[in-house]
Structure formats: C-alpha cells, structure tokens
Write a structure and sequence with these properties.
- Four copies of one chain form a homotetramer.
- Chain A is an all-beta fold.
- Chain A has no helices and seven strands.
- In chain A, strands 1, 2, 3, 4, 5, 6 and 7 form a seven-stranded antiparallel β-sheet that branches.
- In chain A, a hairpin with a 6-residue loop joins strand 3 (42-49) and strand 4 (56-63).
- Chain A is globular and about 45 Å long.
- Chain A binds chain B through residues 10, 12-15, 21, 47, 49-52, 54-55, 89-91, 93, 106, 108, 110-113, 115-122, and chain B through 6-7, 24-26, 31, 33-37, 66-70, 101-103, 105, 109, 112-120.
Chain lengths: 122, 122, 122, 122
C-alpha cells in the first residue's frame, strides 16, 4: 500500500443524456471517467434516476488500482441485460468501493459538428 | 426513510442566459437539473437576479423523491404568469426544501451548430 | 440587512483568453459573471497574471446589492486606460469587498460556429 | 513573502484526451493551466494514468512565482523523451511544490469547428 486513494466514494451527476442522433467522425456519447490512484481495485455501482420512474440499479463497472476507466454509458449493460435509454433525461449516483475521482463528459454530434460538456461530478 | 438526501439546500448560478435565436434540431435552452436522492419530495424556489432591476421571485418547481427533474427555464412560468426574459443576462439562487444536487446546462443553437455549457452550481 | 451575502471574497480563474478573431452573430468574448445576493454593494478588483510579466492591477468593477454583473473582459479598462490584451494566455484573481459567487464563461467564434466554456471559479 | 500562494498542492483530472486530428485555425490540444499567486516558484510534476498500463511519471514543468503557465500537453516531453500519446484516454495527477490552482481545458477541432471543455480540476 504505497499509493493514496485520492477522492471520495460517492459522486452525483444531475444532468445526464444520451443523444439519439450521431453525425460525423465522433459518435454521440457520454462517459463517466473514473480515476483510481490507490492500490486497491474499485467496484463501481451506478444508480440511475429518471423523471417519471423509480431508480434503476444493477449497472456496474470496475476501475483497477492505479488506472483510469473512461466508462462509455452507451456501452454499459446492467446485470439483467438493460442498456441506457437514448433521448431521455436522467441523473446518476456513482458509488465506488474505494475513493476515486469522477468526471462526466458528453460529446454530442447531433447537429453535425462537435459539442462538449465536461465537469467534475459533485 | 431509507435513502439519504445527498447535496445541499442552496445553489447559485451566476451566468444564466436564454438566447433569443434558435437554429437546427435543438432549440436554444437552459436547464436547471435537479437530483433528489432522498425519500421526501423537494419544493424548488428560484430567485432571479438582474443587472438593472430588483430580484424576481415566485418561480417554483418540484422534484419528487428519488427522481431527477431537468427544469427547462424557457418553460418556467411564475405564480403570476411571468416567463424568463430572453436575451438578458441574469443569475439564479435555487432553494430546495430538502438537500438536492443542482447542475446548470445551456444549449445554444444561435449560430446553427450546437454549443454546450454545463457545470455543477455553487 | 435582510439578505445573506452568499459565496466568498476571493475567486481564481487559471485559464483566461480573449481570442483575436470574431465570426458570426456573437463576438468572441469572456465574461466574469458576479452574483451579489447581499444588501451591500460589492467592489470588485482584478489581478491579472501572465506567463512572462509581473501581474497587472488597477482593473475594477462594481456589483450592486441584490444584482448580477456579467463583466465583459473585452470592455474592461484599467484606472490608467489599459485594456485586456487579445491572444495572450492569462489568469485572474477576482477579489470582492463582500462575499459573491463568480463564474467564468468564454464564447469563442473564431472558427465561425460557437464554442462555450463555462465554470464556477475556484 | 507578501503574496499568499492560493490553492492546493494536488489536483486530479480524470478525463484527459489528446485528439488525433486537427482541422481549422486552432490545433486540437489540451492545456493544464496553472496559476501561482505566491512568491515561490512551483515545480509541477505529472503522473499519467491509463486504462491498460501502469502510470507514467517523469513529466515536469515549472510555474514561476506570480505567474500563470498554460502547459500544452501536446508539447510536454518527459525526462526520457516521451510525449503524450494521441487518441488514448488517460487521466492525470498534478502535484505542485507550492499551492497553486489548476484548470484543465481541451480544444477539439476534429470535426472542423471548435469544441471546448473547461473545468477546475478536483
């Protein structure tokens, strides 16, 4: 144990959205980017919140020790085979078994050219 | 009461702006995205600040327990029927009856292609 | 004294840049957006930091009580008549006489379409 | 010693990416923008984290007293001559010998027009 696990265990992202349309070199996508500076692997657990339905759970990922994992939300599949719905506003609680740092980034190519959103989660 | 209401009760957004022009698939708009992870519904109250006039109040919204609400500012109507003025710089204080997390996002299509601004409020 | 002055007195913005080129409906510009929720006017003082020269001072602005001021950096003039240089990387310390909240926003139209950067200062 | 060194010594950036393609007036690039408000020069040390390899060290830079340094990641060379790989997701820990403030900014011109990402590191 030589490397300190920097950050915290819970991160919140109120504005998530997976656009329905792609256009150009980049595919429209969102990423939850996790940085694990410590020496213990991180088990990541997502709770998805919606406007008109109960939260969904069962979406998980890993970020190994001393690694980053740029988790593409469009490729995330829940334990029972569900993907993230496109074109629906949602929000996320990201829980990690060890302290990590989480950034949310969105890349939208709906209107042909590229638009970015990037922020450190709360 | 099983789910912790994460976040805080007051959030500030200094740079709000509802553009006057739309162009393309997306309509220019701002959203105040609220995430309520707790088991009690949130009553949301907006105070709008301007450059040359007293603050405006009377704009309200709800974010139910375990839900997100992506509040479109262009659709917000005050108790006495006022909408948000377009093309005028303003700022916001967002007050919630229970702890929530607030993100501000702007989508501008004035110059045909898409431009994003997204940030966790202070 | 009824309204609490929310925020703090010092804010830092490491990446400031006033582009040299405009294109389209919007003019390329930066804004330091101040929100003063309290009942006392705020005197704002800018210190500009550069890569190869001592800091510049003497740039001031006001944000009245219960107002926002979206300070356009391209229109800011120092006490001795200096404007902000275009095309040069710089950074800012924003000091206020009372607690305020500060957001930095950049709008770049160099390559014809609009690009945004927006963040709460540190 | 008259000027307070504002900020902190460690900053984290989970989502870094140096695009493979340029297009237009701007070159696609990332910058780690450091602001040193104090009277002692800052020695900056980067640790780069990847998805499938051990962290890389040996990338260093300086930010002199009372200066800003907008460190272009595409020009950063490690002590043993390595540059930052293009087109690969990575993350960064930025360590400074004195307190500083760090902002991460990305400018992407892959799809001809400009897209910005800007945030205060964690």
């Amino acid at each position: 144990m030589e490397n300190t696990p920097l950050g915290k265990n819970e991160w919140l992202i109120p504005d998530a959205f997976y656009p329905e349309t792609d256009n150009g070199i980049y595919v429209s996508h969102e990423a939850v980017c996790v940085l694990n500076t410590g020496d213990v692997d991180a088990d990541i657990d997502f709770t998805l919140y919606f406007e008109n339905a109960e939260p969904m759970t069962g979406y998980t990922a890993k970020c190994p020790a001393r690694r980053t994992h740029h988790i593409r939300m469009d490729r995330l599949v829940s334990n029972d085979g569900k993907t993230i719905p496109r074109g629906v506003p949602y929000a996320m609680l990201v829980k990690s078994s060890v302290p990590v740092v989480v950034q949310y980034s969105r890349c939208d190519t709906t209107q042909r050219e590229l638009a970015f959103m990037g922020l450190i989660a709360y």
